[in-house]
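Researcher: I'd like a structural prediction for the single chain below. Treat it as a standalone chain; there are no partners to consider.
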Amino acid sequence: MSPEKAPKTTVLAAGDRFIRPATFEAALRREVGAPLEISTLELPWPDEPFGDVGTVSEASGTEDQLIEALDGVDAIVTQLAPMSRRVLEASASLRFIGVSRGGPVNIDLAAATERGITVANVPGRNGIATAELTLTLLLAALRQLPAAHGSLLEGRWRGDLYRADQVGTEVNGSTIGLVGAGAVGGHVAQVLVAMGARVLVFDPYLAPERVSPGIELVDLDRLVAESHVVSLHARVTAETQNLFSAERIAAMRPGAILVNAARGPLMDYDAAAEALESGRLGGVALDVYPAEPADTDHRLFELARAGANVVLTPHIAGASVETAERAATGVAVDLGNFLAGRPLAHAVALPAGAGA
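Model: Treating it as a single chain, here is the predicted structure.
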């Protein structure tokens, strides 16, 4: 059958205000070698925070909105649409979900598997962007940029920041510990090694033969005790929840800096504030928080406003033009694979009996 006469696959491009519907549509038309009929939907994130919807989390939009948009649709590509059990059970024709993120927490994977729906994701899509912002936070804290920046905005020239007891430190020659060395931590490690740092990594899932030159695989206690800077790069699991507790923060090297651009539940923010205020920590640099939007009345924010060495950004580590393009391309490629009967590049749920 010629492409012109082949039946068209109906696809919903459920974008948002970061990965626009048009970005998904362009990727679909570029990457999928099959006739498509594409409809679009724009969800309100990030102008409106994501949250729990039905049986899924970190979702944008409503179940009713998706049920209506998915009527008669074969496939959906999205970043944050709430693909809950209720939505999936109401979407009788749906066969494929392409979720353009690494952690598909907005997809009810059990319900998708039960209904024979294939789900593909895009692991590592924002790895470089997140790594680069992590390095930005780290460098800002090491060189005490909050104090320098804030003083100039207040009309003060802080010449004292050149005093021996005030100056920051360099990456070169420092010991920097990374908790996790996946798509983000691995890239951070490579850059830090190139900058002359001694890099320690704790990652129980990283095989020793995969450790790059210049990186030392160690246990967490040693990493915490020896590192001038500790940067978190783990996913939130039962094992990593509150991994940097009050006790672990207290065990850090005096004057060390703690960086978190991964997920808020990895650390105890109250303990970090106490350690910073007491002088145990030399700085804190954060892009993520226990709950989001962040509580800007938290003690860490008060300390930042008082001039402490605290660097804060509003969960923007993965926000780059390239991340959006990479994410949209990833799900489009796997929809093409699915329609052509080829193995998926990244499958997180498959119908019973299907191979990867």
